[in-house]
Amino acid sequence: MAIWLLFGGLVSFSHLVSGDVTVMVFLLRWNGYLAKFSHHFGPVLYTIPSGSSDWQVER
Fold first, then answer.
1. 41: exposed, middle or buried (C-beta count within 10 Å: 0-12, 13-18, 19+)?
2. Percentage with pLDDT > 90 across the chain
3. Over the stretch 43-55, which tens digit does the pLDDT of each residue have?
């Protein structure tokens, strides 16, 4: 039973990490797209990364 719980924890943990990586890659790509138009969206570039880091800390 303990082994099954440990295995389930590892699976959910790896799923959580892969989800965070997917979000991170998406944010990096999105920031890359915004950087091309940084002269239009300068403030947005800085609010998105700070918001995501705040979300990581609070969670």
1. middle
2. 0
3. 554 555 555 555 4
